[in-house]
Amino acid sequence: MSGTIDLTAPFDGIAVPLTAVSDPVFAGLMMGDGLAIEPLSSTLLAPCNGVVTHLARTGHALTLSAANGAEVLIHIGIDSVRLNGEGFSARIRQGDTVRCGQALIDVDIDAVAQRVPSLQTMVVIAGAGYRLSARASGLLQAGITRLLSITPGETPATGASGAAHAEPSGPAIRRPARVAHRNGLHARPAALVQASLRLYAAEVVVEFGERQANARSVTALMGLGVDEGADVIISARGADAAGAAEAVIEALQAACAIAHASGHNPAAAAVPPPSVAANTGTSADTSADLIGWRGVCAAPGLALGRVLRLDQSVAEVPERGAGVDAEFAALARALNQVRLELGQAVGDAQERRAGAESEIFAAHLALADDPELIAAAESAILQGQGAGFAFRNAITRQCEILLGLNNALLAERVADMKDLERRVLAALGHAAGNGDAFAEFTDANAAVIVVADDLTPSELTRLPRDQVVGLATALGGATSHVAILARALGIPALVAVGPRLLGLETGREILLDASRGVLEPNPLAAQLAAARWRIAEKRRQREQMLESASLQARTLDGVVIEVAANIVDAADAREAVRHGADGVGLLRTELLFSERSEMPSAAEQQQACQAVLEALAGRAAIIRTLDVGGDKEVAYLSLPHEDNPALGLRGIRGGFAQPAVLDTQLRALLSLQPLSLVRILIPMVSDVEEILRVRRRIEQLAGEMQLAERPQLGVMIEVPAAALLADHLARHVDFFSIGTNDLTQYALAMDRCHAGLAARLDPMHPALLRLIAMTVAGASQHGKWVGMCGGMASDPEAVPVLLGLGVTELSVSPPLVPEIKARLRQLSQAQCRAEVQALLQLDSAEAVRAAARRCWPQDQSE
Ligand code: PEP
Ligand code: MG
Fold this sequence. Notes:
The protein is of the alpha/beta class.
């Protein structure tokens, strides 16, 4: 074996000390020592000559055996194993001999970056016995800059066995185990297995089929290719064999102890918490790369922008009320308005497939209904307090209880309580002090990094998305809801930076590298240059996608599918056009009616909808009549209390119960111009008479208005009865729009806002597919077309299924238009039609999804 070898940088990028990467296993050097890179290029190059002794099936990691015997493990991205190979394309095979600088793996870094907590790439020397020196820092050039040098030490590593232990003796004991780690025995679980043996001397081997691996060798364990749920045998020999085997079994069977691979919290636990020293400003940051302030990564990403300090002063609320009746009514009105807002937030998030976000607002919705909270506020009102003062006190008491439980996770829920407080106070007319921060900010075009003490979920969602590029908070935790939301919105966020953060003055340019857990208050020129390059590159790629989004979505066999947008107002309509939408597939008019004290007049409604048509510049708009009632209350409509809101007077039933409201809206819609671009959509229809009654009313009103033209009329198919009667309904309408949010709720009898059922509320359930097939069959009997405006249309996995079932218009949230168009362009309608029939015969949504993934694998390169 030769002596020292130099590794060259495998990517362009910025060197990151391994101890600073956002994965505790790598940062804790459990895989071995090395260096990491924040990559800026998209092809991984070999850092030295060597043999590829292991190439992950998923293409995100490999091991090179170097000339001096060192095993160089390269792992691209944090948690990237769960992409199952999407975004990685290996140019070499296991066993290949490669030369330094040779291209090994192509990475679609934009696509991967959006789906993993961090792109940080770790280069690690597995096993002991090597001295690492000349570690690089700062900017690296792939294939040119030296990354580090490796010199074999006095105790050479023993290849894959990785350890030098006394020769074990005694008979081997054998124990079965099942690998519980998500995605199988990949790098991090393997490192846990290895770490579990640190206190034992026994020789332990993991057997999988005919293959065996030393349990102390991470690379050997990965090389077994063990999948999640697979059975293995642990064979141990030596004086402490029994204990060692148990330790390995525990490491294999415990669901990953470092849990950030799934669910809501991908990046959260990944960055080690900031040291107290780092947060107080004393110098714990000795590394050349960590000159900035440390925090906890709440949402990964890189941002460069000017500081905007949010003023979070609390609203002034008078203690005394204006009488019990008035304050009771005010509180009820405010709570109703908040419920409406939160219901809308849940719906919007569901439509954007932002599951975490919808669950957070669903939880807030549940808080707004909390009987204890409301009772506490009401009892204070009875003693003469004002509604706002009483509600704030009730919240404060709840927060004190949560904070007294000594449970960090529950303590973070205080922000949710405060969020509800702020919403209710705002609805009562007591605005908090942060509303004008942006208005006061002099440079309206600047990219902004919002700096605050802490943020609540609704503060975050109210921030202008086009200006805010990053978030940093002095307080907060990585499991807070605002952290989850920041990830969902794709805004890099660093929390728990410490009080010195609040000393940053508005307007100062800072660099936020949330993935590395660092905020740089005084960025160097090189750091700025690298950050600008990478941010610009990402923008360029996004713009490319947007450019093709404005073209038609034509399938491989030439079928044009309309991709429209779900919107609530003219601003959304402009956003939809910017994203290439072919029109509006659903204008929810509820927003026009909320946040008001009296009903909007026909003229006001006409103006709002006409503004939408103007923004669409010649594209058509499907406008749905009011869908309130049940849990979506509007105070001035005085709808009756519902014991079972989802099954009560909502949608068109509410319209018939309040004919003046329906008439006003129909008049407004009939006065839009041009009517040829207006399509009226009726929600919650469940029988033919309902649509006939609406049609008669439209005829009467249009006659009174002396209109020569009629807008198209359609019904939402969102009640199973409507799908079952599609052939009858189709006779009387121009089109159908399937609302899978409700159709799923009603077909599966699962509340759409029920957090505990969210995972099972899947429109890919075969029962739903059959209802959709029935709807299309009914429509086609009368030559009518079928669109979809429910959340299913936004799911790229569902798109081929819908194409195969005969849906010809998909209406999605505006930012998703480019992605859905891109997906359609990869598909052939004829092939989808042929494949989809088998899916209707399956037993479960999981089986449908598995079959869809097999039939129509998603091409990430698009
Ligand atoms: C639906 O039910 O799928 C739908 C689009 O309507 P909403 O979500 O507004 O109830
Ligand atoms: Mg609906």
